[in-house]
Structure formats: structure tokens, C-alpha cells
Here is the input.
Amino acid sequence: MERPKCRLCETRAPRRFCPGIGGDICSVCCGTEREVTIDCPLDCEHLIAAREHERIPAPDCEMPYPEVRVTEQFLSGNRELAMATGQMLLIAALTNGHASDFDVRDALDALIRTYKTRDSGLVYETRPANPMAAAVQMRFEQDLDKFRETLAQQSGVHSIRDNDVLGVLVFWARAERSRNNGRRRSRAFIHSLGNLVPPEPRRPQGAIIEA
Here is the structure.
């Protein structure tokens, strides 16, 4: 009787079931192809276990947008906005199939460039060339608009300051750089968002608005 073989390498004996490919694979292929050629579901037990021992490579450049100051005081005063936008990023990524950390990075970069032009007095919407990133950005913007509308209805305040949105977006862009594991289909940052914020709608709080 022929022994079963790994679905990927077709050489070694399989050791575990891979939900990403819907078949059994060996531990070597699981380790080398995880988030490289395999779109790993965030709830895969082997992916979760690997996260505990994962070594995140140092970013190959300095943290993005060093000209934007994001202090502890700023984050403390805008905690609810930061949490709400983190949730929006999570939902936008999960809604768009297999969006990766790099897709979220491109979406964040486009959003930040858009808000930076607003700060200069211009109104120019930046869109990423990456279709998946563009979809993440569009969903995020839709949810942020709904958040603004709900806030206005509940409190009578008409808007959240663009500068505050810019600051929390830069905060998340830096968090993505620090969490991305460098694999082509990395979702380590998206996974970390799931640990930080619940995937249910958050009600806006007065702490995030300008009085």
C-alpha cells in the first residue's frame, strides 16, 4: 500500500491538515510555505501556535511618516478613535477575502496621503494601484463616514478633526510595519488587530471628538 504524501511537496509524509489548501501537508511545507504560497486562515491552530514563536524582522527603513508626531498624550486623548479605526481596518481586511498586511499597508499609505493633502488645504483622494488595497481603503472610508454620521446624530458634533484621523492612521501604519513578518501573504498585523479590537460595531464616544 502506497503511503500518503504531503499535498505540496509530494515527498514527505503529511503531519497535519492544512485548511489553507484543504489537504494534509508535512511540517516542513507548513513552516516554509505558511503565508508565502498558502493563504492561511487566521484561526488555523498551527498558524496561531507559530505566532507565539514568530520573529518579526526589523523594518528595512525607519518608521513611516516621521514628520507626523504621534505622542502618548495624543493616543491617550484619542483612544476611542484609535480603537474604532483599528476595528474598521480589521473589518475591511476580513471583508476583502485574503487581504494581506501588505494590502493594508498600501491602503493606509493612500489614506494618509489623502489626509496629508487635506491638512495642506487641498482635497485630493489618493487611490492605490493595488486592487485589494483599494477595496480595503474604500470599505474603511465607508465605515468612517458612517461613524462620523452616527457621532453627529448622537452628540450634535459635526465632525472628527482630520488631523486626529491622520494621527491614528499613522499610528496604525507604524504598527503594521512593526508586526508584518515579511512573508508575502503575511497577516500578522491583521491577526494582532483581532486580538486588540472586537469585530463588532463600536459606538462613538465623546472622548474622541473635539469639544
